[in-house]
Amino acid sequence: MNRGLIAALSIALALSSELIANGQTTKTDAFRQAVEFYDRGMFERAESIFSEIAASGQDVMAKGYEALCAVRRQSVGNRNLADQYISEYPYSGLIPQIRFYNALNLFDEQNFSTASAEFARIDMRSLKNSQVPEFIFKQAYSLFELDEYDRAEELFSKAEKMPYSDYTAPSRYSLGYIEYVRKNFEESFDWFSKAAKDPRFTEQAVPYMIECRYMLKDYSYVISNGDAALDRVTPERKRQLARFISESYLSEGNAAKAREYYEIFGEGAKEMDDADLFYAGSVMYSTGDYKGAVDKFSRMTSRADSIGQIANYEMAYSYIKTGNKVAAMDAFKAASSQPWNEDIREDAHFNYAKLSFDLNNNPSVFNEYMKAYPGKKKDDIIYGYIALACLYGHDYAAAVDAYSNIDLLDSRQKVNYMKANYLRAHQLIEGGGWRDAVPLLKAASYYSDKRDPFNQIARYWLGESYFRSGQYDQAIDVYTTLYNNSALEGKPEGALIPYDLAYCYFKKDDYDGAAKWFDEYLASSKPAKGEDAAARRADCDFLRKDYPSAIKLYEAAIARFPYKDNLYPYLQAGIAYGLTGDKKGKVKVLSSVEEADPSAEFYPEAMYELGRAYVAASDNESAISVFRKLGSSTKDNTIIARSLIELGMISRNMSEYDNALDCYKKVIDLMPDTDYAADALSAIESIYQSEGRGDEFLDYAELIGATRDKTDAEKEQMYFNAAEQVFMTENYSKAISSLKSYLDRYPQGVNVAQTQYYLAECHRNLGQKELACDWYQKSLETEPSGLCSENATLRLAGLSFELEHFKDAYSYYRSLLSIARLDANRHTARAGMMQSAFRGLDYQEAIACADALKADKASSAAEKRQADYVCAKSSLSLGERDKAYALFRSLSSEPSDAEGAEATYMLIQDAYDQGNYSTVQSMVHKFAADAPNQSYWLAKAFIVLGDSFAEQENYAQAKATFESIRDGYTPQGKSDGVLDNVNMRLEKLKTLM
After folding, report:
1. C-alpha to C-alpha distance for 147 and 113, rounded to whole angstroms
2. pLDDT (tens digit per residue) in 625-656
3. Rounded to 5 degrees, what are φ and ψ at 914?
């Protein structure tokens, strides 16, 4: 059901307050007073008293009322309080009320799945009579929203049969809608008719009643009742009702009333030869009777001679005048291929190229024209036309390419050129393509003054792109210039310039420079990046080994900012205290970490340092508690292993050797073949030897295969294993450091390729796509056919596609197809090759890949539809319209999915391009009825409908159509150009009306 119905029902239903009658009494005045407050709806005051009563003893009812008040108030944590009470007192008489109001809260939040489950836990007999109608209706409605129509219908029917209440009409309306969805229009009409008697539902029910009668072919009812309903419905519904009324009039034989939507054209014909037809067509063309001209020219049996070229040329312009651009394109093409009149041939070729670009998105004919007529010097005009069209269509990459081909940009083109570069850069940035954004952002600021706000924002993002690409010196140059010019003053980006400069210096290990700029940034009153900046500022002193100063700054950061989910400053302050030998200080700053959420960033590391601090302070009991808690709260095996080693050392110092051995052996079991295991084994040997149990150690060592010294290769493997363990914990920032340490230590090691692959995975998971590609490429270069090569190629292909490096992506997918051992990866390669070729504008290859994908037995029906879609769009771009539109027609049979919706739109656009405006109208309305979920393509279709009204000089209807889109459409993303196109058309209409 339309989600808007929820708001309608909420307004319609006025919920009355309930009284709790639980049959229990209390002996205290406070309890009675609290119950009285509750009954009056004063839940906060009641809850306060109940809380005091519950806190003073084991008063079950007081605790229950406390939970119930919390649920009624929807206070923070109310569900946890309710769940705790239900768990502790499962037989309490207040539980049904708690569940009932919790379910209502979930219902109001539109969390229908959880609400339905909560309603199902309630025995209706435990509720008051006054609560039962609401209970049944909202349980039914929750099931309805979950598409469980049969169960919902059963409950709606039950609610409808009860004595009349606020929920009777909503139940009837809902039953009507269920039957409507099932296409049981007679039953649906009956229910909607009953619901419409309630004035709250009249406006919603009547349009459905009319539609039901229309579907039942009761046209007289539609005609009699339709007009009265038109002014009370939404614009979209109004259009639909108007269609029903129109078609009803038509079915009843009243063509005059249906004329707005349907027209009949016809004309008699007489025998005429080609010369007669050419003359008649020329006369009609000269007098402006373009429709007659088309008729006469098109009836010529041959247009292959000189008069035929003129006929084709004049017929093409006649088609333009009558709105049939598709036929005009074909006629211009024919005239451009005929040699008799060179002027006609050249102009026809130009117009054929323009229409081919407009209709097929195919610029190749423009290229052919410029090659054929270099002396006409229309290149700049053509590129300017292509660029502007691409800019309006949000194809900023193509716009940039077109503007780049213009030798001398005029002032307007300069503005658009900078705009196209800037917007294209942001498209790439959103996909992670920071390096590719750099030249675009340079171009974006090329023609404007440095004081211009657009120039400044473009250069700000240029600095950011330099920084994200690791070009810190260039970023410093850009940011420094902006700072010195007081750029972007008052804007969020301007406030961040000192912060950005600080980070550039920090990344260069210039901690003096970083400290200076972090200080300046932190001097502002409310720095947006204050938490991070304060921690990094302290890091500057820490890395300069000025630990006392670092401690002060970390603690100042903690005092100034919340750091709720990040324990980094606590950890670093603790380490700094340790480095200064201040054991008490370390314990003090880290002790609060014990109360932190284990999911907080740096929790394992901070807890480990706290445990070590307790050890250093000889507080073994606290240390043991911390290490044990840490062992059960982290997935990081390296932290667990280090904690176990610390626990083993503590036990050993306390002469609890068996406990120590147990800890050390757990390390070996957890992380075999690592340095941690080696350290643990040394400790085990020492214990056994000190107790004179050397034989036991030898037995144990033999059991785990540690009876000989490690070879260099085994030591390398141990180092790699330790780094790999960090990677497995998904702490990718930490893993990068460990993996790079392995590469530094073993640059020619046997695990280099796998380490490079892990580094790529780390960067990918951190959203650093370009760096990930670098490391995948290095891994493949190290071992082209290694263990990771298949996955590396797969990842590299996918990321290249996301970065819009489509030629690279195609190459990697093709490589994957040849090396893949897994059928799934070979299938992915075929799909990737198709999409990469298509997005890379290699349409012939895209069609070939699409055919290969359709022939793949592993392809799903959805993938085959996607292949047909690629074939259709590619064929259109190659000028093969018949093939393209045959595929679009096939795809449009399912207009509610992405391919079908766009295909339907393309057919609507084609009807418009052929001047078939009545067909446009009928197709748009049918599209709206068949695919209401496809808002984007529906909006574009209605734009075409508005254009068709404008072409017929019905400007008022065109304006109304465009305004309905403007007022009712929600953009689907930043690249959504629907509203831009609508507003542009509305502005144009102002000059026509």
Report:
1. 11
2. 999 999 889 988 899 999 999 999 999 999 99
3. -95, 0
